[in-house]
Structures are given as structure tokens and as C-alpha cells.
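ARCHIVE CARD
Drawer: 12
Card no.: 0347
Subject: one protein chain, sequence and derived structure
Cross-reference: see card 0346
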Amino acid sequence: MEKFNDLIQSEKPVLVDFFATWCGPCKAMHPVLEQVKSEIGDKARIVQIDVDQHEDLAENYRIQAVPTFIIFKKGEALWRHSGVISGNDLKAVIEQESV
């Protein structure tokens, strides 16, 4: 996998899902993310980061709750949300940031 900093420099939005394998709400979000991914196609990229395996990234981005979603574009964090979110709301934010 490419380095995280290279990944978030994309011209297209990159939705990063900071999650944990033991987290119930994170597991509930998995099918929602799959659905959003299929609906948005190549408008954006969705990446999952396990906070237990990448503690440095979690600390760097002050992840205090999982799931936490951050949308990056050209290296800048444009949007952030902690907790469960509907697929429609997530898709709307991604489409707004992909303009």
C-alpha cells in the first residue's frame, strides 16, 4: 500500500475510515462503505485504516473515537465525522468535495 501522505495528496477526494476490528459501529459501517464505494465509482477513493495497527496515524489525526471519517483532498482535511453515518449522507459529502 502506498504511503498515507502520498495517498491523501490526491486531486480526488479520499475518504479515510479510521476503524478498529473490535468496534461494533465500525462493523456496521462496512456494508454502508461498500455501497457508497459502488455508487460513487471513481469520483473518490475509500481507504480503511485500523487504528490498532496504525497508532501513529490515529494519534497524528487525533482519532479519539471509532469510526472516524476524514475526507482529504490535496493533502488537506476537508471534512470530519465521528460515529455512524448514513450512506446517503456520506455520499452527499463525497460528491460535494469532488467538485
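Annotation on reverse: The beta strands are 14-19, 45-50, 68-73, 76-82. The mean pLDDT is 94.
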